[in-house]
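Researcher: We plan to redesign the surface later, but first we want a full-length starting point. Tokens attached.
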């Protein structure tokens, strides 16, 4: 056996060992995309589909890979990563779909003329990967979506994308559909439907005695995209129908992608077996964009409309609106409409005045410290009065700090206001709480997850209030 064949054995064995050490999802997401490509003495070369993959794999798993190889071979290997884009047989003139990055140059992608030969039926032509700006908040989801578009029905089936309103779920769903459509040069049956329309169509098909047509439409899809599955709560018969649709498509290796405004485990009144199906493949989430990404998105949108909006106005919008991309866009639209009306560029002062209503709109404003206290207390199994009370045991102190931190993050309340709401505490206590949470977030990533979950629930409560 020559040297490199030996090494391939070690690589294959290492992957098998790793498969037992990481979750199935992790393995599918990160390891199935790595291929052994050769080796030299103590260096193993592998290929990965993108620099994103390479960086993520290095950061998350390089150590695991190296120690596993060492355990198996007794040798200290190095890994060399090469980027090879895996593609399906491309139709002529097909350009690789690229996603503009918030830190890169979104302009390049925007200036490229859109190809609109024959649009895919039911899909929005502008919702493409090219028009989707990637930042830390959505990178994982965007990469997964692109990987799916390249090889539908193979590795990540189904895929579930979840995230709050206006964060790009529908955009990504259509992007997958559009990319597959383009890839297959208009062949193939791509079916996009909202869960609501799916439900209504199903009901109508029963009334009109045409369930066979309904079934054949969905069970013959090559790619099925269902938006907003949280709508299926309590719709028992539709859930049942979708369950069978799912099984038929899954067995036929047809790609399914679903979106939801919350994790599936938080969708109430949905059968367990359907929940299991939704989460059988890959689940990815979308978060609100950070400042840089928000700025990149708005600059791109302004450019697309051929309007110049100054950096300071864009920064103002992004500082003030942190909820989601839809709200950001709405604020930009308002500014642009005004600029067109007065026929000149909008100054910072005018923007401030124009956006005043927007900032105090109910959507941004319905959240009170009171709601935050209720949701946080509930999450930690405490009562709101305990959160506001004097007790300083760890069980209470940490949730209290979280609640104070969130109050500062998502309401307009000052440190003093927040202190008053928490049993008349001093503003320095609030400041200290925020610092504590900030520093804990740096060392413990789960804190950030908890905060995001809490904020989502708070916004839901707020929108019901
Ligand atoms: P959701 O379905 O999650 O409620 P949408 O997909 O409808 O959100 O997105 C709301 C708006 O924001 C759409 O106009 C969409 O194009 C835009 N949008 C969201 N995320 C991005 C992004 N990363 N880059 C560019 N536009 C985005
Ligand atoms: Mg949507």
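Model: Full-length starting sequence:
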């Amino acid at each position: 056996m020559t040297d490199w064949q030996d090494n391939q054995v070690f690589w294959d064995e290492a992957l098998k060992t790793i498969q037992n050490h990481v979750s199935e999802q992790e393995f599918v997401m990160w390891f199935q995309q790595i291929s052994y490509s050769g080796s030299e003495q103590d260096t193993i070369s592998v290929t990965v589909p993108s620099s994103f993959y390479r960086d993520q794999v290095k950061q998350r798993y390089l150590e695991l890979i190296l120690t596993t190889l060492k355990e198996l071979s007794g040798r200290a290997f190095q890994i060399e990563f090469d980027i090879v884009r895996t593609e399906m047989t491309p139709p002529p003139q097909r350009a690789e779909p690229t996603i503009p990055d918030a830190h890169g140059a979104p302009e390049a992608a925007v200036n490229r003329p859109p190809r609109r030969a024959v649009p895919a039926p039911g899909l929005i032509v502008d919702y493409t990967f090219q028009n989707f700006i990637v930042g830390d908040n959505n990178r994982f989801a965007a990469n997964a979506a692109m990987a799916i578009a390249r090889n539908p029905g193979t590795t990540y089936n189904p895929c579930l994308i979840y995230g709050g309103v206006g964060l790009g779920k529908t955009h990504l769903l259509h992007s997958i559909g559009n990319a597959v459509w383009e890839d297959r040069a208009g062949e193939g049956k791509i079916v996009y439907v909202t869960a609501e329309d799916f439900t209504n169509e199903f009901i109508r098909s029963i009334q009109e005695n045409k369930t066979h047509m309904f079934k054949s439409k969905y069970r013959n899809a090559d790619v099925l995209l269902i938006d907003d599955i949280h709508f299926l709560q309590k719709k028992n018969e539709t859930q049942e129908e979708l369950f069978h649709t799912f099984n038929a498509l899954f067995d036929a290796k047809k790609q399914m992608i679903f979106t939801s405004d919350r994790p599936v485990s938080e969708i109430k009144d949905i059968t367990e077996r359907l929940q299991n199906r939704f989460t059988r493949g890959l689940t990815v989430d979308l978060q609100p964009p950070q400042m840089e990404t928000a700025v990149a998105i708005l600059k791109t949108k302004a450019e697309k409309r051929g309007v110049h909006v100054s950096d300071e106005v864009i920064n103002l919008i992004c500082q003030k609106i942190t909820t989601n991309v839809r709200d950001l866009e709405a604020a930009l639209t308002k500014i642009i409409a005004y600029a067109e009306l007065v026929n000149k560029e909008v100054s910072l002062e005018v923007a401030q005045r124009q956006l005043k209503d927007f900032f105090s709109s109910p959507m941004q404003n319905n959240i009170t410290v009171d709601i935050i206290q209720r949701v946080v207390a509930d999450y930690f199994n405490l009562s709101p009065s305990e959160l506001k009370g004097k007790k300083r045991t760890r069980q209470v102190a940490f949730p209290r700090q979280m609640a104070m931190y969130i109050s500062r993050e998502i309401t307009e309340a000052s440190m003093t206001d927040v202190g008053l709401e928490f049993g008349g505490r001093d503003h320095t206590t609030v400041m200290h709480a925020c610092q504590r949470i900030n520093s804990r977030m740096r060392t413990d990533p789960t804190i950030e997850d908890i905060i995001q979950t809490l904020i989502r629930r708070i916004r839901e409560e707020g929108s019901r209030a």
